[in-house]
Amino acid sequence: MTLLKIVPSAASVRQKMQNKKIKIFIIAGEVSGDVLGARIMQHMPDVEFIGIGGENMQAVGLKSLFPMSDLAVMGAIEVLAHARTLTRRINQTAKEILAQKPDIVLSIDAPGFAKSVIKKIRQDDAGCELINAGMRFHHVVAPQVWAWRPRRAKKYARIFDKLYAFFDFEIPYFTKYGLDTVAVGHPISDGLIGRKNTTTKKTSEKIITLVPGSRMSEVKRLLPLMHDVADMLFRNGYSKYKFVIPTVETTAEYVRQETSRWAVKPELVPASQRYDIYDKTYIAIVASGTVSAELAMLHIPTIVVYKMNPITTWIVRQIIRVKWVSLVNILLNRCVYPEFLGPAATTENVINAVGQLSIPSVRAKMINTLKSADDLWRRPDGNPSQLIASHIKESV
User: Among 54, 154, 176, 331, which is least packed by CB within 10 angstroms?
Assistant: First the structure.
C-alpha cells in the first residue's frame, strides 16, 4: 500500500502562523526603560512576554529573569567594576533566549548589554538557526550619534534589525547604513504634555524636588551635593520650603539610610508617585537624564547636575560633540536649564541658580520657553508605546 504524504497548503500555513501566539523576549536595563516596557506590554495583551524588567513590567505580568538593578551601571570605571556580574548576566540572558526561541528580542536602552547578548547569540549555531528561522532584534532608543561617536550608527545596523528612535532628525544617521529606523516620539511625552495645567492644585507649600539619579553610582556621587544644597537653602531663607526625593527600587534603601542622618529631613516618595510631586514642584535639582526631559514637558524650572568618576569625565569631554547634556537644551539649541557638570557641580553654583529661579521674571521666561518645546517631544500619529507595538506586530 502506498502512503501519500499530505503537504499543507500555503493558506493553512498562513492560518497557523496567524494563530501562533507571538513570543517576545524583552530587556529593560533601567527605570525609564522599565516604564516604557510596561506600556508596550499593555498594548500587546495577546503576546507572551519573557525577559528582564523592573517593578513596572513585573506589575503587568513579566517574571524577570534576574533583578534589573544588575544592569543599572553607567560609566567606564563603573562598568569595569561590575564586569563579572555583567558577563554572567550576558551569558545567562543569551542562554535563555536560545531556550525560549522568541520571535523578537526587544531591548529598551541598555545598549551595551543588549549588543553583547545579541553578538553571543549570533555566534552560536543554535542562534544562527533561530535567526534564519525568523527571529529578529529590535531596539528602542537610538544612541545619540549626533552628540558623540557617530560610528555607532554603523555598528547598530550590523546588530539590530529595527530601531525605534525618538525624533525624525535621528533617522538618517541609521538608514544610510541600511537599518530600518522609525521615529515614535519621546516615550514620556505620552500623558505629560499639558498635564500640569490640568492636575496642579493650588497649595501654599513650596516644594524643592531633589533627584540624585536612578543608578547607585549616580546617587552616591550626587546625594552629598544635594544634602549640602538642602542644608544651605534651609539656613538661608528657604526654611519654609519642603524637600522631596522620589526614590527608585534600586537605590531606595540607600537613600533612606543616608537621608536619615540629614539635619533637614526630606520626604521620600516612591518613583510611582513622582508626577504628583513634580506637579507641585517649585524648583527641581536633578541628575542629568530622563528626569530632566520629564520636568521640561511639565514646564518645571529645573537645575541639572552631574558627577562621574574623574577618568570617565575626562573621556566624555574628549568625545562629546554637543554643548549641553539636557535634551530640552539640545532640542532648542540654547541653555534653558542651567547645567553644572563635573567640577562645576558645586553647592555654591546650585544655590545661586536656585536664587535666580526664585525671581518671578526669570521663572516666567523659563516656563514659556519650555512650553514652546511641547510639539518637539511628540508625534501626531500616536503615542510611542502604541507605535512601537504596532510596528512589532507588523514585523512578525
Answer: 176
